[in-house]
Queue: 2 jobs
Job 1
Amino acid sequence: MRLTCPLCGARDRREFTWIGAASLLGRPAPGGDFVGWAHLRENPAGPLDELWLHNAGCGALLRGARDTVTHATAPLTLAGGAR
Ligand SMILES: [Zn+2]
Protein backbone atom coordinates (compact mmCIF):
# COMPACT_ATOMS: atom_id res chain seq x y z
CA MET A 1 0.00 0.00 0.00
CA ARG A 2 1.29 3.46 -0.87
CA LEU A 3 0.25 6.73 0.75
CA THR A 4 0.87 10.17 -0.69
CA CYS A 5 2.21 12.74 1.74
CA PRO A 6 1.42 16.30 0.59
CA LEU A 7 5.00 17.31 1.47
CA CYS A 8 7.04 14.26 0.37
CA GLY A 9 4.97 12.59 -2.38
CA ALA A 10 4.01 8.92 -2.73
CA ARG A 11 5.70 6.68 -0.16
CA ASP A 12 5.45 3.11 1.08
CA ARG A 13 2.95 2.60 3.89
CA ARG A 14 5.79 1.40 6.18
CA GLU A 15 7.03 5.01 6.45
CA PHE A 16 3.76 5.95 8.18
CA THR A 17 2.25 5.14 11.55
CA TRP A 18 -1.50 4.79 11.78
CA ILE A 19 -2.79 6.98 14.63
CA GLY A 20 -6.51 6.24 14.46
CA ALA A 21 -9.77 7.81 13.45
CA ALA A 22 -9.70 11.56 12.85
CA SER A 23 -12.35 11.93 15.55
CA LEU A 24 -9.38 11.94 17.96
CA LEU A 25 -8.83 15.58 16.93
CA GLY A 26 -12.16 16.52 18.54
CA ARG A 27 -11.14 16.30 22.21
CA PRO A 28 -14.19 16.97 24.41
CA ALA A 29 -14.42 20.01 26.64
CA PRO A 30 -13.93 19.53 30.39
CA GLY A 31 -16.92 17.63 31.73
CA GLY A 32 -17.59 16.04 28.33
CA ASP A 33 -17.40 12.36 27.38
CA PHE A 34 -13.63 12.02 27.86
CA VAL A 35 -13.79 8.25 28.53
CA GLY A 36 -15.70 7.64 25.30
CA TRP A 37 -13.31 9.87 23.34
CA ALA A 38 -10.22 8.18 24.79
CA HIS A 39 -11.33 4.53 24.70
CA LEU A 40 -14.15 3.92 22.21
CA ARG A 41 -13.14 3.48 18.57
CA GLU A 42 -15.12 3.26 15.37
CA ASN A 43 -14.54 0.12 13.29
CA PRO A 44 -16.67 0.58 10.17
CA ALA A 45 -16.49 -1.61 7.08
CA GLY A 46 -16.02 1.11 4.48
CA PRO A 47 -14.71 4.68 4.40
CA LEU A 48 -13.06 5.98 7.57
CA ASP A 49 -11.46 9.40 8.07
CA GLU A 50 -8.05 8.61 9.61
CA LEU A 51 -4.87 10.16 10.97
CA TRP A 52 -1.41 9.06 9.85
CA LEU A 53 2.02 10.17 11.10
CA HIS A 54 4.77 10.30 8.48
CA ASN A 55 7.34 9.22 11.06
CA ALA A 56 10.00 7.99 8.60
CA GLY A 57 9.65 11.14 6.48
CA CYS A 58 8.74 14.70 7.30
CA GLY A 59 7.04 13.94 10.63
CA ALA A 60 3.77 15.59 9.60
CA LEU A 61 0.44 14.55 11.09
CA LEU A 62 -1.80 13.78 8.10
CA ARG A 63 -5.49 13.20 7.61
CA GLY A 64 -7.28 11.28 4.89
CA ALA A 65 -10.02 8.79 4.11
CA ARG A 66 -9.29 5.08 3.66
CA ASP A 67 -11.76 2.35 2.78
CA THR A 68 -11.20 -0.30 5.45
CA VAL A 69 -12.38 -3.06 3.11
CA THR A 70 -10.42 -2.25 -0.05
CA HIS A 71 -7.66 -0.05 1.47
CA ALA A 72 -8.30 2.52 -1.28
CA THR A 73 -7.05 5.86 0.00
CA ALA A 74 -7.94 9.45 -0.71
CA PRO A 75 -5.11 12.00 -0.87
CA LEU A 76 -3.74 12.90 2.55
CA THR A 77 -3.75 16.46 3.80
CA LEU A 78 -2.03 18.13 6.74
CA ALA A 79 -4.16 17.44 9.80
CA GLY A 80 -3.61 20.94 11.13
CA GLY A 81 -4.39 22.51 7.74
CA ALA A 82 -1.98 24.24 5.39
CA ARG A 83 0.46 26.65 7.03
ZN1 LIG B 1 5.93 13.58 4.50
Job 2
Amino acid sequence: MENYVLITGASSGIGRDIAVTLSKTYPLILGGRNVERLEETRAMCTDSDKHIFWNYDLADVENIYDNLTAFIKNNELKVGGFVHSAGIWFVTTLNLVKLNDVQKMMNINFLSAVEILRSLVKRKTNAKNLKDVILVSSIAPFKSAKGEAFYAASKAAINVFARAMADELAPNTRVNTINPGIIHTPMMDNLLRDNEQFEKHKRTYLLGFGETEDVANMAEFLMSDKARRITGQHFVVDGGATIAI
Ligand SMILES: NC(=O)c1ccc[n+]([C@@H]2O[C@H](COP(=O)([O-])OP(=O)(O)OC[C@H]3O[C@@H](n4cnc5c(N)ncnc54)[C@H](OP(=O)(O)O)[C@@H]3O)[C@@H](O)[C@H]2O)c1
Protein backbone atom coordinates (compact mmCIF):
# COMPACT_ATOMS: atom_id res chain seq x y z
CA MET A 1 0.00 0.00 0.00
CA GLU A 2 1.30 3.42 -0.99
CA ASN A 3 1.69 6.00 1.78
CA TYR A 4 -1.27 8.28 2.47
CA VAL A 5 -1.45 12.05 2.12
CA LEU A 6 -3.43 13.78 4.89
CA ILE A 7 -5.30 16.88 3.68
CA THR A 8 -7.05 19.17 6.16
CA GLY A 9 -9.85 21.40 4.86
CA ALA A 10 -10.68 18.71 2.29
CA SER A 11 -14.41 19.46 2.52
CA SER A 12 -14.30 22.75 0.61
CA GLY A 13 -12.53 25.17 -1.74
CA ILE A 14 -8.77 24.85 -2.10
CA GLY A 15 -8.42 21.73 0.09
CA ARG A 16 -11.11 19.95 -1.90
CA ASP A 17 -9.42 20.70 -5.23
CA ILE A 18 -6.01 19.65 -3.87
CA ALA A 19 -7.65 16.36 -2.81
CA VAL A 20 -9.20 15.78 -6.23
CA THR A 21 -5.85 16.53 -7.93
CA LEU A 22 -3.66 14.43 -5.59
CA SER A 23 -6.14 11.52 -5.66
CA LYS A 24 -4.83 10.68 -9.14
CA THR A 25 -1.54 9.65 -7.48
CA TYR A 26 -2.01 8.98 -3.74
CA PRO A 27 -4.48 7.42 -1.34
CA LEU A 28 -5.80 10.25 0.85
CA ILE A 29 -6.90 10.92 4.40
CA LEU A 30 -9.57 13.58 3.93
CA GLY A 31 -9.70 15.82 7.02
CA GLY A 32 -12.77 17.86 7.94
CA ARG A 33 -15.70 18.35 10.31
CA ASN A 34 -18.56 17.78 7.93
CA VAL A 35 -18.87 14.16 6.75
CA GLU A 36 -21.48 14.98 4.12
CA ARG A 37 -19.12 17.45 2.43
CA LEU A 38 -16.20 15.02 2.80
CA GLU A 39 -18.36 12.42 1.02
CA GLU A 40 -18.88 14.91 -1.82
CA THR A 41 -15.11 15.41 -2.09
CA ARG A 42 -14.47 11.67 -2.05
CA ALA A 43 -17.00 11.17 -4.84
CA MET A 44 -15.07 13.71 -6.97
CA CYS A 45 -11.74 11.91 -6.40
CA THR A 46 -10.06 9.28 -8.60
CA ASP A 47 -10.38 5.76 -7.06
CA SER A 48 -12.79 7.10 -4.45
CA ASP A 49 -12.90 3.88 -2.40
CA LYS A 50 -9.17 4.24 -1.59
CA HIS A 51 -9.66 7.41 0.48
CA ILE A 52 -10.60 7.60 4.15
CA PHE A 53 -11.84 10.33 6.51
CA TRP A 54 -10.30 11.89 9.60
CA ASN A 55 -13.38 13.57 11.00
CA TYR A 56 -12.09 16.16 13.48
CA ASP A 57 -12.82 19.75 14.56
CA LEU A 58 -9.42 21.47 14.60
CA ALA A 59 -10.70 24.12 17.00
CA ASP A 60 -10.18 21.42 19.65
CA VAL A 61 -6.44 21.89 19.32
CA GLU A 62 -5.50 20.34 22.69
CA ASN A 63 -6.61 16.85 21.61
CA ILE A 64 -5.31 16.76 18.02
CA TYR A 65 -2.05 15.01 18.87
CA ASP A 66 -3.66 12.13 20.81
CA ASN A 67 -6.59 11.77 18.42
CA LEU A 68 -4.48 11.68 15.23
CA THR A 69 -1.79 9.45 16.75
CA ALA A 70 -4.47 6.91 17.78
CA PHE A 71 -6.16 7.20 14.35
CA ILE A 72 -2.86 6.39 12.57
CA LYS A 73 -2.05 3.53 14.94
CA ASN A 74 -5.51 1.93 14.97
CA ASN A 75 -5.78 2.03 11.17
CA GLU A 76 -2.11 0.98 10.70
CA LEU A 77 -1.52 3.92 8.35
CA LYS A 78 1.69 5.22 6.84
CA VAL A 79 1.42 8.94 6.17
CA GLY A 80 3.86 10.22 3.53
CA GLY A 81 2.42 13.69 2.96
CA PHE A 82 0.56 16.42 4.81
CA VAL A 83 -1.30 19.36 3.26
CA HIS A 84 -2.78 21.87 5.72
CA SER A 85 -5.55 23.77 3.95
CA ALA A 86 -8.09 24.18 6.78
CA GLY A 87 -8.42 27.81 7.74
CA ILE A 88 -10.74 30.62 8.75
CA TRP A 89 -10.68 34.27 7.76
CA PHE A 90 -12.25 37.37 9.29
CA VAL A 91 -11.67 41.10 9.03
CA THR A 92 -11.73 43.24 12.14
CA THR A 93 -9.78 46.04 13.82
CA LEU A 94 -7.84 46.07 17.07
CA ASN A 95 -10.60 48.13 18.73
CA LEU A 96 -13.29 45.58 17.95
CA VAL A 97 -11.54 42.24 18.08
CA LYS A 98 -12.24 39.70 20.83
CA LEU A 99 -9.42 37.62 22.27
CA ASN A 100 -11.44 34.41 21.80
CA ASP A 101 -11.71 35.04 18.07
CA VAL A 102 -7.96 35.62 17.72
CA GLN A 103 -7.25 32.45 19.68
CA LYS A 104 -9.66 30.45 17.49
CA MET A 105 -7.97 31.76 14.36
CA MET A 106 -4.49 30.93 15.69
CA ASN A 107 -5.70 27.46 16.70
CA ILE A 108 -7.24 26.52 13.35
CA ASN A 109 -4.85 28.32 10.99
CA PHE A 110 -1.57 27.68 12.80
CA LEU A 111 -1.49 25.58 15.99
CA SER A 112 -3.46 22.71 14.46
CA ALA A 113 -0.67 22.36 11.86
CA VAL A 114 1.88 22.21 14.69
CA GLU A 115 -0.06 19.49 16.50
CA ILE A 116 -0.67 17.44 13.35
CA LEU A 117 2.99 17.61 12.38
CA ARG A 118 4.02 16.69 15.93
CA SER A 119 1.94 13.53 15.58
CA LEU A 120 3.21 12.73 12.06
CA VAL A 121 6.88 12.89 13.11
CA LYS A 122 6.38 10.68 16.15
CA ARG A 123 9.44 8.39 15.99
CA LYS A 124 7.84 5.08 16.81
CA THR A 125 4.92 5.41 14.42
CA ASN A 126 5.38 7.58 11.34
CA ALA A 127 8.50 9.83 11.32
CA LYS A 128 10.39 7.94 8.58
CA ASN A 129 7.36 7.86 6.27
CA LEU A 130 6.75 11.61 6.16
CA LYS A 131 8.33 13.09 3.01
CA ASP A 132 6.33 16.16 2.02
CA VAL A 133 4.54 18.90 3.93
CA ILE A 134 2.64 21.76 2.27
CA LEU A 135 1.09 24.44 4.46
CA VAL A 136 -1.46 26.67 2.73
CA SER A 137 -0.60 30.19 3.85
CA SER A 138 -1.55 33.49 2.16
CA ILE A 139 -0.11 36.69 0.73
CA ALA A 140 -1.58 38.48 3.78
CA PRO A 141 1.81 38.53 5.63
CA PHE A 142 3.42 40.20 2.57
CA LYS A 143 0.79 42.86 1.82
CA SER A 144 -0.84 44.95 4.52
CA ALA A 145 -4.63 45.30 4.45
CA LYS A 146 -6.77 47.06 7.05
CA GLY A 147 -8.57 44.60 9.33
CA GLU A 148 -6.44 41.61 8.33
CA ALA A 149 -3.86 41.87 11.15
CA PHE A 150 -4.94 38.70 12.94
CA TYR A 151 -5.33 36.58 9.82
CA ALA A 152 -1.96 37.86 8.53
CA ALA A 153 -0.33 37.05 11.90
CA SER A 154 -1.67 33.47 11.79
CA LYS A 155 -0.30 33.03 8.26
CA ALA A 156 3.04 34.72 9.13
CA ALA A 157 3.33 32.12 11.90
CA ILE A 158 2.77 29.38 9.31
CA ASN A 159 5.50 30.84 7.06
CA VAL A 160 8.09 31.02 9.84
CA PHE A 161 7.11 27.58 11.13
CA ALA A 162 7.53 26.07 7.63
CA ARG A 163 11.06 27.46 7.26
CA ALA A 164 12.09 26.26 10.72
CA MET A 165 10.59 22.79 10.11
CA ALA A 166 12.30 22.54 6.71
CA ASP A 167 15.57 22.92 8.60
CA GLU A 168 14.65 20.67 11.52
CA LEU A 169 13.17 17.80 9.47
CA ALA A 170 15.72 17.71 6.60
CA PRO A 171 16.77 15.59 4.81
CA ASN A 172 13.83 13.20 5.35
CA THR A 173 10.98 15.70 5.01
CA ARG A 174 10.50 18.74 2.75
CA VAL A 175 8.33 21.59 4.07
CA ASN A 176 6.98 24.44 1.90
CA THR A 177 4.12 26.91 1.88
CA ILE A 178 1.75 27.98 -0.87
CA ASN A 179 0.73 31.62 -0.49
CA PRO A 180 -2.38 32.35 -2.56
CA GLY A 181 -3.94 35.72 -3.26
CA ILE A 182 -7.73 35.89 -3.71
CA ILE A 183 -9.08 32.56 -5.02
CA HIS A 184 -12.76 31.93 -5.84
CA THR A 185 -13.94 29.77 -2.91
CA PRO A 186 -16.77 29.94 -0.35
CA MET A 187 -14.33 31.81 1.97
CA MET A 188 -14.17 34.74 -0.46
CA ASP A 189 -17.88 34.76 -1.45
CA ASN A 190 -18.85 37.75 0.68
CA LEU A 191 -15.81 39.81 -0.24
CA LEU A 192 -16.31 39.27 -3.96
CA ARG A 193 -20.06 40.04 -3.71
CA ASP A 194 -19.26 43.48 -2.28
CA ASN A 195 -18.95 45.72 -5.37
CA GLU A 196 -16.65 48.24 -3.74
CA GLN A 197 -14.25 45.55 -2.46
CA PHE A 198 -14.44 43.69 -5.77
CA GLU A 199 -13.41 46.77 -7.77
CA LYS A 200 -10.71 47.74 -5.27
CA HIS A 201 -9.01 44.33 -5.36
CA LYS A 202 -9.55 43.79 -9.08
CA ARG A 203 -7.23 46.71 -9.87
CA THR A 204 -4.26 45.00 -8.18
CA TYR A 205 -4.85 41.49 -9.57
CA LEU A 206 -2.87 41.82 -12.81
CA LEU A 207 -3.93 38.35 -14.00
CA GLY A 208 -7.36 38.40 -12.33
CA PHE A 209 -8.53 36.45 -9.27
CA GLY A 210 -7.45 32.81 -9.01
CA GLU A 211 -9.25 29.47 -9.15
CA THR A 212 -8.70 26.54 -6.79
CA GLU A 213 -6.94 24.59 -9.53
CA ASP A 214 -4.16 27.24 -9.59
CA VAL A 215 -3.28 26.26 -6.03
CA ALA A 216 -3.89 22.55 -6.59
CA ASN A 217 -1.46 22.55 -9.54
CA MET A 218 1.25 24.04 -7.32
CA ALA A 219 0.51 21.46 -4.61
CA GLU A 220 0.77 18.64 -7.18
CA PHE A 221 4.19 19.93 -8.26
CA LEU A 222 5.49 20.39 -4.70
CA MET A 223 4.32 16.92 -3.71
CA SER A 224 6.13 15.34 -6.68
CA ASP A 225 9.73 14.29 -7.25
CA LYS A 226 10.11 17.25 -9.61
CA ALA A 227 10.36 19.37 -6.44
CA ARG A 228 12.85 17.08 -4.71
CA ARG A 229 15.43 19.88 -4.11
CA ILE A 230 12.89 22.42 -2.87
CA THR A 231 12.32 23.01 0.82
CA GLY A 232 11.67 25.92 3.18
CA GLN A 233 10.18 28.09 0.40
CA HIS A 234 7.03 30.19 -0.05
CA PHE A 235 5.20 29.85 -3.38
CA VAL A 236 3.09 32.91 -4.15
CA VAL A 237 0.09 32.22 -6.43
CA ASP A 238 -1.56 35.64 -6.60
CA GLY A 239 -2.00 36.81 -10.20
CA GLY A 240 0.61 39.52 -9.55
CA ALA A 241 -1.20 41.15 -6.60
CA THR A 242 1.91 41.51 -4.42
CA ILE A 243 3.89 43.37 -7.09
CA ALA A 244 1.10 45.69 -8.25
CA ILE A 245 1.08 49.24 -6.86
N1 LIG B 1 -9.77 31.65 -0.92
C1 LIG B 1 -8.80 32.54 -0.86
O1 LIG B 1 -8.84 33.61 -1.47
C2 LIG B 1 -7.57 32.25 -0.02
C3 LIG B 1 -6.45 33.10 -0.16
C4 LIG B 1 -5.31 32.85 0.59
C5 LIG B 1 -5.28 31.77 1.44
N2 LIG B 1 -6.37 30.97 1.58
C6 LIG B 1 -6.25 29.86 2.52
O2 LIG B 1 -6.61 28.67 1.86
C7 LIG B 1 -7.11 27.73 2.81
C8 LIG B 1 -8.43 27.15 2.29
O3 LIG B 1 -9.38 28.20 2.20
P1 LIG B 1 -10.59 28.17 1.17
O4 LIG B 1 -10.56 29.43 0.44
O5 LIG B 1 -10.59 26.88 0.45
O6 LIG B 1 -11.82 28.27 2.19
P2 LIG B 1 -13.12 27.37 2.42
O7 LIG B 1 -13.71 26.97 1.13
O8 LIG B 1 -13.93 28.17 3.39
O9 LIG B 1 -12.52 26.08 3.14
C9 LIG B 1 -12.03 26.16 4.44
C10 LIG B 1 -11.78 24.75 4.93
O10 LIG B 1 -11.30 24.81 6.29
C11 LIG B 1 -12.04 23.90 7.06
N3 LIG B 1 -12.17 24.31 8.46
C12 LIG B 1 -12.55 25.52 8.94
N4 LIG B 1 -12.64 25.47 10.29
C13 LIG B 1 -12.33 24.18 10.64
C14 LIG B 1 -12.26 23.50 11.88
N5 LIG B 1 -12.55 24.11 13.04
N6 LIG B 1 -11.90 22.19 11.89
C15 LIG B 1 -11.63 21.54 10.73
N7 LIG B 1 -11.69 22.14 9.52
C16 LIG B 1 -12.03 23.45 9.49
C17 LIG B 1 -13.41 23.91 6.43
O11 LIG B 1 -14.12 22.75 6.86
P3 LIG B 1 -15.72 22.72 7.05
O12 LIG B 1 -16.26 22.26 5.75
O13 LIG B 1 -15.89 21.74 8.17
O14 LIG B 1 -16.13 24.12 7.41
C18 LIG B 1 -13.07 23.91 4.96
O15 LIG B 1 -12.79 22.61 4.49
C19 LIG B 1 -7.27 28.49 4.13
O16 LIG B 1 -6.17 28.19 4.96
C20 LIG B 1 -7.21 29.95 3.69
O17 LIG B 1 -6.72 30.78 4.71
C21 LIG B 1 -7.51 31.17 0.87
